[in-house]
Amino acid sequence: MMDKSHPKMIRTSLSTFLKNHNFIVKEGLIALLICALGDLVAGIILGKMTFFLKMFPGLLVLIPGAIGMRGNIFGSFASRLSTNLHIGIISPKFELSDDLNHNIFASFVLTLFLSLFLAIVAKGLCLLFNFESISIFDFVIISVLAGIISNIIMLPITMFISFKSFKHGWDPDNVTTPIIAAFGDLFTLPAIIISIYILRFINLNLILGYVIFIIILILVLVSFVYCYNLSYETKTILKQSTPVLLICSFLGGAAGGVLNSSVETLLTNPTLLTLIPQFSGESGSLISILGARLSSGLHSGLIEAAKKPQGHAVDNFIVSYILTILIFPFIGILAEASSILFKTAGVGFDKIMEISTISGLILVSVMIFVVYFISITSYNKGLDPDNIVIPISTSVTDSISSLILISVSLVILGVLI
């Protein structure tokens, strides 16, 4: 006979857990809601980019990697700031120092270098899968210029959010990464559009185009070598981050390849096209919060780098599930509401909420173990998790989120797509 007190015990345990972790859920939820609004704007922009996607074939392969790269680089930058603020290396009064300056410069150089690599990956994937695409010249110009534009915006935003959240008593691990990711998502697509217009101007003069192309290549390579030799701090960041981010860029390109292979389906289902940046952004932000908290926990000794997660690590897993159940139905509602607002074809609130929630639960169930494994492995190998965990975990998230979302959509919507 079932013990009637068992459900009551579960409710009591859940209530106690929420009470003890209320600040984490509250801060994380607020950050994710802000992120959702930013991703909604990005989704609406992507939904309105059909002209550019048709005029510049293969561009969709570049977009997920470009969006993910902003989150990877500046999420890691924010995570390093968070750790340094926690342990007192960087002053919360925002005083310029070698540590801060070197972090800024390294983040800028990583953006340039990875933008170039992402352009090469995007063109390579188009050739490999026989996608119609623009030239490597066009890919490089668009990707690097978009990276520079995003950098100019994202560096001050990242520092402002990190320092302000810490100053006001908010844990940067719960706040900065998702909000920064939201800003990255928000500004990446406009930066790409601006880069396209610049490219169209450059293409009016072939010689000018080649000169700019060569200048970009020289600038990227020289700045990378200079930064690598600048200091021990910058060398460590580039040495640990570059291999990881190269893998991440490839995974981001793979995610773009998945989307590009279903481009006709997406163009005929605007709600799904709007949902993609939201789903990818919220997934990456949620996993980034987990990664940042695990990283800080390992640094501070709250989490033991053991093969079997326990204690503080398991608590963070449960918080991730709670946030998933709260946020993913909401972004489905936002996607469908935007379709109604702009008078485009929707799929229905019930179906889009089901798609978003089920996809989110599947994704989080996979990623919590991936993030934990990456965290303890990097820590045990003597690597800084701040440089490793967020880039890899968010890139894996970006890569599989597209596949999971499209697969769940196919199952739930059936013949509708």
TrEMBL record:
Membrane-crossing residues?
59-79, 100-122, 134-163, 175-198, 210-232, 318-337, 358-379, 399-416
Kindly state which keywords UniProt assigns to this record, in alphabetical order.
Answer: Ion transport, Magnesium, Membrane, Transmembrane, Transmembrane helix, Transport
Q: Spell out the InterPro entries in the cross-references.
A: SLC41_membr_dom, SLC41_membr_dom_sf, SLC41A1-3
Q: What is its main location?
A: membrane
Q: Which GO terms describe its cellular component?
A: membrane
Where does the record say this protein resides? Membrane
SUPFAM superfamilies per the UniProt record, alphabetical: MgtE membrane domain-like
Kindly give the Pfam families that the UniProt entry links to this protein. MgtE
What molecular function terms (GO) are annotated for this protein?
monoatomic cation transmembrane transporter activity
Membrane topology reported for the UniProt record? Multi-pass membrane protein
Domain SLC41A/MgtE integral membrane per the UniProt entry, residue ranges = 63-193, 276-407
Q: Which residues form a coiled coil?
A: none
**What protein family does this chain belong to?**
Belongs to the SLC41A transporter family.
Name of this protein: Divalent cation transporter
Q: Give the originating organism.
A: Methanobrevibacter oralis
